[in-house]
Amino acid sequence: MKKNISLSLAAISLGLSLSGPVLFAQEKKTQIDQTTIKEVIHSIDTIIQRNYVYPDKGALIVKFLNNQYKKGKYKNLTDPVQLTDKITTDILSVQNDKHLRIEYNPQLEKDIIKFNSSISDKDKITELDIAKEKSQNFYFKKLEILPSNIGYMEFTNFALSSNEARKIIQSAMQFLSNTDALIIDLRNNRGGSGASNNILGYFFDHRTKTGRTFNRIQNTWTDSFVESPENGENLRMKMPVYILVSKKTFSAAEGFAYTLLTLRNAKVVGNSTSGGAHLTRSFSLGNGFVGFIPYLRHENEKTHTDWEGTGVVPDILSDSPLLTAQNEILKDKLKTANNQEKSKIQWLIHYNESQIADIKIDSSQMEKYTGRFAEFEITKQDSQLYFRDVNQNSKVPFPMIAISQTLFQIGGDYQIEFINLSNDKFQAVNMSWSDGWSEKIDRTP
Q1: pTM: predicted TM-score of the whole model, two decimal places
Q2: Which of 224, 244, 327, 332 has the most CB within a 10 Å radius?
C-alpha cells in the first residue's frame, strides 16, 4: 500500500486525488475559486488590450467581460472548462472572430512558457514539431494525374518552415508541373504556417506584392510579398488553377485560396470557407489558462480587405467540387481540341456527370429503350434499365445510369445514346468509348 502523500500543485493540474491511503490514482475534476476567476479575467483584459488586432474592438470586449464579471456571471463556474466556454461565448458575442478564444489547458500553458524562455528551448520544440510533421509527409496526402492530364494535389495543413518541408513541396510541384491544369484540394485543410514554406511562390512569375499586414504587437504596417521559392530554380505553375474549398477550410488555407483567387485568377469551387483571417498567437494567462489572440491581419492588394467573418466565397458553388472542377477544365479544353480529342473529352465530361446525376426515367416509358442492338441487350427490371453484352461470359447485366433522358453510362466502359424514336421505340443507339471511338448500332429486328 502506498504511503500518504500530501496534495501537490502537480497533482491538482493532473486532476488526481492523493489524500489518504490509495491503491491507485483516482480522477478528480479540477475546480477553481473566485480568486482564480478574478485573476483570469484580469489576465484576459491585459492580453487583449495589448495584443488584439483591432484595438477598438478589444476595448469593447474588455468592457463587456468586466461588466459580466461584476454582475456575477462567472462566480458559480468552478469548472475551468465551463468558465472558458462561457468567456469565449461572451467574447464572440462582441466580436465574432473565429480565432479568438480562451482555453483551460495547463500543459499547453507550460509549453508556451517553456517556448518563450530561451532560444535553445524554442529550437528544441521546433525540431520536435518538424519531426512530427515529417511522419505525416508534411501534410501532403495525394498527388495524381487525372484523365486528360489534369493535376490533382491534396494537402491538409501548412507545415512549419524547414528544409525537409520545402523539399517535399518542390517535389510535389515538379511532379505536377507538366499538367494542363491543376486542382488543389483544400477541403480538409485547417491552416497552419501558411507563409513559411512559400507554396504561393510557385504560382507567380516574380516577386509580387499581395497587400500589407498590420501587427498589433508592434503597431506597424508592413508590405507583404510573394517571394520566389528557395531552390525552386525556374519552376513555376503557370497552368490554370482550380481550388476546392469547404466549410472546413480555415485560416492559412483560406489565405492561400484568397490570394490565388484575387491575384492569380484561380477559380474557387465548393462551399464558402470558415472565415478566419487573422494570424494568432497563444498567450499564457496563468493558472493553466491560455488565450488565443489574433494579433495580425492582412489587407489584400486588390480588394483592400480580407475574408474575416465572410469566408472565401467560391466562384462556383458545388457539393461535388472535384467533379465540377474537372468538368470546368474539360469544357475549356474542348474549345481548342481537335476532333478526336473532343470525343475523348466529351466522354469524360459525360462520365463525370454520371457520377452525380439524379435523372429519373419514367418506368412507364422504359419499353421504348429495351431490346437488342446487335450483341447488346437492354432489359428493364422494376424501375431500372440494364445492359448486357451477350457475347460475354458473364450473365450479370450492368445498371444503366441516366445522364439525360437519352444518354446513359454503362460501368466505366460504355456510353449509350438512344436515337431515332419511331413507333414508340428507339431504333438505334450511338455507342461510345473513352478512347474517342463511337459507333451507330441499329435495333435488331
Answers
A1: 0.82
A2: 244
